[in-house]
Amino acid sequence: MNARVLVAEDDTKQAEVIRRYLEREGHTALLVHDGRAALEEVRRHRPDLLVLDVMMPVVDGLDVCRILRRESDLPVLMLTARSTEDDLLLGLDLGADDYLTKPYSPRELMARIRTLLRRTRASAAAPDDPVLRVGALAVDPVRRIVDIEGRRVTCTPGEFDVLATMAAEPERVFTRRQLLARTRGDDRYITERTIDVHVLNLRKKIEPVPRQPVYLQTVFGVGYRLTDGSRAR
After folding, report:
1. Of 60, 90, 159, 181, which residue is most buried, by most CB within 10 angstroms?
2. Angle formed at CA 113 by CA 108 and CA 119, multiple of 5 degrees
3. Cα separation of 90 and 104, whole Å?
4. Which residues, including other chains, have CB under 8 Å from residue 148's CB and lie 6 or more apart?
């Protein structure tokens, strides 16, 4: 699973440690030390994954993530010294796919990178999968494309995995724990609130009125279900 990984970390010693571990696993590592350089490198080299520190000079990591999500579905693993759940969920809300709280071990970081790369490349193993259609919503699990009423929707890998899981079984009520198990496996670091953030972001992208969802519906006390929208008509 050789990949081109961009590391945006202003601590040069820490960035070098990450580079050595990445290269040891056969990846190509690109290093930058401020947010503006991170944006420029993403646009220039189109890496497979971005490891993004939150606290960086020039443009901080949160703003980098916000800007990138307007342009790309590049997988983003965020590094943060902010340990409260609200801070971590803010990163997910801006489009990060995973986060790791400092201090962390390089081995843990490599495990997260392997998991994220595996998730984003898994669709290549199933070229015959059909497009999943739920009402006006079309989810292509091979090309990882989402359309709603003919309009292309850009999703993060995490958002896509949640939507594709539900589109494969429309009308089924999924608990948050079931969605975590389907999309994140045994990643014990991710909480059920991660699913809530992905659902809120998806509603902003596919619902006519996000606060009155007709596709991604809440089943109170249980979880979520994806419908064709006909119940609202």
Report:
1. 159
2. 130
3. 20
4. 136, 137, 138, 205, 206
Answer yes or no: are the C-beta atoms of 35 and 58 closer than 8 Å: yes
Residue with tokens 């109170």, as numbered in its chain: 220
For the record, the structure tokens of 151 come out as 């309009």
- The tokens describing 126, both together, are 């199933």
Q: How far is CA 67 from CA 14, 34, 73, 230, 232, in A?
A: 25, 14, 11, 35, 34
Q: Is the pTM of this model over 0.85?
A: no
Contact 135, 216 (CB under 8 A): no
How far is residue 180 from each of residues 56, 184, 194, 205, 208, measured CA to CA in Å? 30, 5, 8, 21, 26
What confidence tens digit (pLDDT) does each residue in 108-119 have? 999 889 888 887
* pLDDT tens column, 48-86: 999 999 999 999 999 999 899 888 888 999 998 866 666
